[in-house]
Amino acid sequence: MSNLRSLVAKVPKAELHLHIEGTLEPELAFAIAERNGLALPYSSVAELRAAYRFANLQEFLDVYYACAGVLIESRDFYELTWAYLERARDDNIRHAEIFFDPQTHTARGIEFPTVVEGICGALEDGWRKFGMSSRLILCFLRHLDESDALETLAAAMPYRDRVVGVGLDSGERGNPPRKFERVFHRAREAGLVPVAHAGEEGPAEYVREALDVLEVVRIDHGNNALDDPDLVAELVRRQIPLTVCPLSNLKLCVVDDMASHPLKRMLELGLVVTVNSDDPAYFGGYVNDNYVAVAEALGLGEADVVKLARNSFEASLLDEADRTRLSGELTAALTSLERSDGSKP
After folding, report:
1. CA–CA gap between residue 77 and residue 96 (Å, rounded)
2. How far apart are CA 156 and CA 154, in angstroms?
3. What are 278-326's pLDDT values in tens digits?
4. Sheet holding 218-221: strands in order across?
5. Which of 6, 99, 103, 314 has a CA-to-CA distance to 305 between 20 and 30 Å?
């Protein structure tokens, strides 16, 4: 497994399922809170970390929203994003597709431009300093009404040069994709690429609704799609990518233990699976940690790791030329590794 760990560290990859608010580490949360004259409902970093024991998605969201409340100024959103990009660089991420939740902030009186300009300032610096490309995806909070989502979409229109897609996140149970049919229709008309969280806690039917009603091009999570063989066959036929988050699934009790995670079965069925970190500050690991954890638990081989990394580029929202370029970087890295140790990953 030591060779596999080395391979995970050295192969270039993309991250396609990352909530930027979910990268807020406790130390940074306390620093920003102090600067903004705010108090977190925790007395220390240690007490906050101790709260990261979640029985379900909602328990996580309660802590997540409390911490996001410290983000007030564009500088805060810049620092949040920059801290993630530095970690992503260390994990050899060459491209990142980042979710943000504007409703979490506008509901607190934070202006939409404050959020977008802070995040995008860091993303632009990530490209200039690290050569890391990125795409920004606006997620609607599914526990709120669609009318709120429509207002958020309208607020995003002046930033069409920065926001490339729309997604759907937050509490899945009782909030089916069809609830947001109109806003996704308008987003598609505006040229925004649709993706959606489905099949994490919700049933396979939610995955089908995301495909048929929201017309998404990618499913975030998608674990419970495996309950419907016909749906699996459609996902394979259409090569709809799944952005899977192993440590998140474990932390939120979507799986009982990593050895029961469905990722290996997904690969065997021919699904386009990618590995991502979701909300890594809360779930105990960034992208490479997720690769290693699932590989160790499921006995994945080097070919599986390479397949997952290549899938990450193929499933991205980049144009064909950039996908080819990044896939070429992966091929070159593998060739270099083969020359250095005499083996073939």
Report:
1. 16
2. 5
3. 999 999 899 999 999 999 999 999 999 999 999 999 999 999 999 999 9
4. 13-19, 93-100, 133-141, 163-169, 193-198, 218-221, 241-244, 272-275
5. 99
**Contact, 278 vs 17, CB < 8 A?**
yes
* Secondary structure letter of residue 192 according to DSSP: P
The rounded distance, in Å, linking the Cα atoms of 115 and 66 is 17
Render the burial of 83-103: b for 16+ CB within 10 Å, e for the rest.
bbbebbbebbbbbbbbbbbbb
- Token pair in block for residue 169: 């996140």
Which residue of the set 172, 200, 201, 302 is catalytic?
200
- Residues 95 and 12: beta-carbon distance below 8 Å: no
User: pLDDT tens for residues 92-148?
Assistant: 999 999 999 999 999 999 999 999 999 999 999 999 999 999 999 999 999 999 999
The β-bridge partners of 163 are 136
SS3 of the chain: helix, strand, coil, percent, to 5 = 60, 15, 30
Structure tokens at 8: 């995970």
Give dist(CA 278, CA 21) in Å, integer.
Answer: 10
How many Cβ atoms from other residues are within 10 Å of residue 275's Cβ? 29
Residue 76 neighbours by CB under 8 Å, 6+ apart? 32, 36, 70, 118
Amino acid at 200: E
